[in-house]
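Structure ticket #2291
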Amino acid sequence: MPIIVNLDVMMAKRKMSLNELSEKVDLTLSNLSILKTGKAKAVRFSTLEAICKVLECQPGDLLEFAE
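Resolution: structure written out below.
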């Protein structure tokens, strides 16, 4: 998949666990895990916005395109 999700990298930089992010973003652990592992087929802008607010980052910090 050419889109790489760097959610785990940003979480590590902010020293935040998946459980903590799940509570703050109000998403289930399973949905965040699917996103974190790169298995998600789509991401809502509202979800992306919430994650960026909590992690204090830009969407480009979370998503990367690689051929």
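Closing remark: Residues 21 and 27 are 8 Å apart (CA to CA).
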